[in-house]
Amino acid sequence: METIKSLETLSQDKNLNLKQVYLDTQIQKVIDILNQELVGLKPVKKRIQEISALLVIDKLRQNLGFTVGNPGLHMSFTGSPGTGKTTVATRMGDILYKLGHSKKGHLLTVTRDDLVGQYIGHTAPKTKEVLKKAMGGLLFIDEAYYLYKPDNERDYGAEAIEILLQVMENQRDDLVIIFAGYKDRMEKFYASNPGLSSRISNHVDFPDYSPEELLIIGKMMLEEQQYEFSPSAEDVFLEYIIKRREQPLFANARSIRNALDRARMRQANRNFDNSGRLLTKADLVTIIEQDITKSSVFSLS
Q1: Which domains does the chain show, CATH number per domain?
Q2: Which of 1, 28, 112, 176 has the smallest count of CB within 10 Å of its CB?
Q3: Residue 295 phi/psi, 5° resolution?
C-alpha cells in the first residue's frame, strides 16, 4: 500500500498550486514594500526570499498532510549601523505573521539595559518581562555582544543569555529572536557562546551601501519631505558622501539623514536671510549646492 500520493496524483491536487498558496499568503506585498523601502542590499533580500520560499513550501506540504518540522527561525543580523537591519526585521515579522509562524508579528527592539540588571536577583525578572512583551512576535536585541562581559565577574549578562537560550529552545513556536550588531563583534560573541550559536539557523550579513546607493537613499528621504536637490547640489552631495564615508562614526543611511537635516537647516537660514524678497515655491523646496558645501566635511579636505 502506498503511504503517500504518487507524483501524478499530486500534480492533479488543487492544494499543490504553489502559485496560489503563495498569493494567498500575501507576502509578496511585504517583499514589495521592503524593496521600496530599502535600496540595494541584494544578498539580504535574497536571503529573506529564500526563508520565505522555505516557509511557503512548508505550508504547501502541510496542506498535503506531510510532516512539517520547525524550520528554526532565530536569526543573526550583522552589519554597520544604518544598513536597514531594524527595517528588515519589521518586515520579517509581517512575513512570519502572514505565514502563520508568528501569532502577532510585532517587533520589540531592546538593548542590554532592557535585559540585564545591576544587582543580584534583578536580571531574571527584567529579562522575563521583556520576553513576555515579545511573545507572539519577534525580539530584536541590538548590539547583542554587550550581553557578554567575561572580564567582569559581577556582570549579570550571562544570566540573561541563559534565560534567552531556554526560551529559544523551548518556545520556538511562540517567539523569534534576532541578535544584531557589528559582524566582527558578533562573531566573537557567538564563539564564546556555542549553545547560542547552534540555535541560530539564519545568519544574514548587511553590506555597507555604495556612494551611489546612498545618493538614491538621500533623494528618497528628501522626496518624503517634499524637498529636492538642484542638479549641481546632487553632484556635490555625492562628493559629500564619498568624503563622509572615509571619516569616523559613519552610519550609512543614518548619517545621510543627519546630513540632510543639516542641509535643510542651512536652506532655511539662507531663505530667512533673503526674507527681504518674496520667496517662490522653488526656494522652499530646493536644496542648492551651498547648502551642502558649508558642511565641515568639505572644510576638512
Answers
A1: 7-206 (3.40.50.300), 211-299 (1.10.8.60)
A2: 1
A3: -65, 145
